[in-house]
Design brief:
The longest helix is centred in the middle third of the chain and has 32 residues, at about 115-145. Helix content is about 25%, strand content about 40%. It is an alpha+beta fold. It has helices at about 1-30, 115-145, 150-175, 240, and strands at about 35, 40, 55, 60, 65-75, 80, 90-95, 100, 105-110, 190-195, 200-205, 210, 220, 225-235, 245-250, 255-265, 275-285, 295-300, 305-310, 315, 320-330, 330-345, 345-350, 360-365. The strands form 5 sheets. Strands 1, 2, 4, 19, 20, 21, 22 and 23 form an 8-stranded antiparallel sheet that branches. This is Efflux RND transporter periplasmic adaptor subunit. InterPro entries: Beta-barrel_RND_2, CzcB_C, MFP_Cation_Efflux, RND_pump_MFP. GO terms for molecular function: transmembrane transporter activity. Keywords: Transport.
């Protein structure tokens, strides 16, 4: 019985050694690469040799050419929304839709109890100031002729100063509404005037309508000789804008009439959702081709420059960065992190991480381990 157990044990050990030997031999036959000190070397019999191809890195001429969507908007200080400064009733309109207006052009007329109170305050303070000035001159004459009292003169001087301050405040309050106080008549309606030169884009004036002082604007005016276009550009492309000045604006309705614009401002805040930056482009619009709210294509074109370009398919994406595989010898490769820029056809600009003359894996990099 003991001999049988011993024989069975020997046979089991022999089978186990034979299995392990066969398994090691199989692993040796199927191993595609070896990794040592982060260098990936293909084995002698690796079938990856036929799948991996390399290309030498060189500097090429690259023109940054980016097309993005943009929206037309009026320049804020060339645009005005006009409402009544007082609650009241509109009794007259002076403009129509599309009319060109100058600064201080009458727009509409409104009667308002609040405006009447402002007029009354002006005339009352004017009269009080006039009386205080007369009293001050009288007290000064009396004092000069030796029959006046110094205390009464000083009191008159104080009253005159107070009355003058009240009159100045009332005058300033009237002038806020583009009314000349010297021609003011008590009870006259308020004429609301245009604060800018431009054309009437929207006219919602209704004769007889009662509006509150917090109502929506009834007239919208804009000067559209110049216009802004808001384009969005990805943060990775922002460095190209520092060397740009002119951009090209393209409209689907006027494909044969590209418009040249100037970069006016680059926003300092990145949109956290789209990871893009707003770029304001100022454009001449004398022919009124561009309308606020219109969508256009904005084309950013840079001057040609020498850059390192690699096939886009050679760039792989890690968790936090982009990388390529670079050949260090025949069938041996290392991973290098790179910073990418723009795209030119089927190639991508490399801003840093590679040198001219490096050989990058242009095909088959996905078969190598991402160390």
């Amino acid at each position: 019985m003991a001999k049988k157990v011993q024989i069975a044990g020997v046979l089991g050990l022999s089978l186990l050694l034979s299995f392990c030997s066969d398994k090691n031999e199989q692993n040796g036959e199927t191993a595609q690469y070896l990794v040592e000190n982060k260098v990936i070397s293909l084995t002698e019999n690796s079938n990856l040799k036929s799948r991996i191809k390399t290309t030498s890195v060189s500097e090429e001429d690259f023109t940054f050419d980016l097309v993005t969507a943009g929206i037309v908007k009026a320049i804020p200080n060339h645009y005005a929304e006009i409402a009544s400064p007082f609650s009241g009733r509109i009794i007259k309109s002076f403009v129509k839709l599309g009319q060109k207006v100058a600064v201080n052009t009458p727009l509409f007329e409104v009667t308002s109890p609040d405006y009447f109170d402002a007029q009354k305050d002006y005339f009352d303070s004017k009269q009080e100031y006039k009386q205080a000035s007369l009293n001050l001159r009288r007290q000064a004459d009396l004092l000069e002729n030796g029959v006046g009292v110094r205390q009464e003169y000083e009191e008159a001087e104080t009253e005159n100063s107070i009355a003058k301050a009240a009159f100045d405040n009332a005058t300033a309050a009237i002038k806020i509404y583009n009314v000349e106080p010297t021609s003011l008549v008590l009870g006259q309606p308020l004429i609301v005037r245009s604060p800018i030169a431009g054309e009437v884009l929207e006219n919602n004036v209704v004769i007889g309508q009662y509006i509150n002082d917090d109502s929506e604007p009834v007239v919208k005016i804009a000067s559209l000789n110049k216009i802004w276009i808001v384009g969005k550009i990805k943060e990775k492309d922002i460095n190209h804008l520092n060397k740009l000045n002119k951009v090209q604006v393209e409209l689907s309705a006027y494909l044969d009439q590209p418009i040249v614009g100037t970069i006016y401002h680059i926003n300092e805040i990145v949109d956290e959702e789209t990871r893009s930056i707003d770029v304001l482009i100022e454009v001449e619009n004398d022919k009124r081709i561009l309308k606020p709210g219109m969508y256009v294509n904005v084309r950013f074109i840079d001057q040609p420059e020498k850059v390192i370009l690699v096939p886009s398919r050679s760039i792989l994406q890690g968790e936090d960065d982009s990388f390529v595989f670079v050949a260090v010898s025949e069938h041996s490769y290392v991973r290098k992190n790179v910073k990418i820029g723009g795209v030119s056809g089927d190639k991508t600009v490399i801003l840093s991480g590679l040198d001219k003359g490096d050989k990058v894996v242009s095909e088959g990099g996905i078969y190598l381990p991402q160390l």
